[in-house]
Amino acid sequence: MAKTCMIEKEKNRRKLAKQYRVRREKLKAIVMNKETTMEDRFAAVMKLAKMPRNSARVRQRNRCLLTGRPRAVYRKFKLCRIKLRELASMGQIPGVTKASW
Within the chain, which residues score under 70 in pLDDT? Predict the structure, then answer.
């Protein structure tokens, strides 16, 4: 089980990213557009820099939904390898069967 503070920090990052998503997209569009003036682009970069760092999606980390484990998380199931194996062995994941030969 991951530390509770790390799980809460990740929740906060997800909340901030969702909250600032539209603003960030608009500013990034201005920065990437070569048609806009250098002053406008620079102003947009400065506004982006003033936003909270944790509002960037890049700062998020995939974590297991059950344990909060940050490593070896399968995106499709949103579970770490350990819990995925346990649940698959018990037959609780639809469409997943344990191979035996």
Answer: none
| Cα angle for residues 39, 40, 42 (degrees, 5° grid) | 65
CB 14 within 8 A of CB 65: no
pLDDT digits (tens, 9 = 90+) for 23-32: 999 999 999 9
Q: 59-72: per-residue pLDDT in tens? A: 999 999 999 999 99
Q: Read off φ and ψ for residue 74, nearest 5 degrees.
A: -85, 125
Tokens of 67: 């344990």
- State the Cα–Cα distance between residues 46 and 22, nearest whole angstrom: 17
Contact of 59 with 53, CB cutoff 8 Å: yes
To which residue do tokens 């539209």 refer? Answer: 22
Of the CA atoms within 13 Å of residue 83, those in its CB half-sphere come to 17
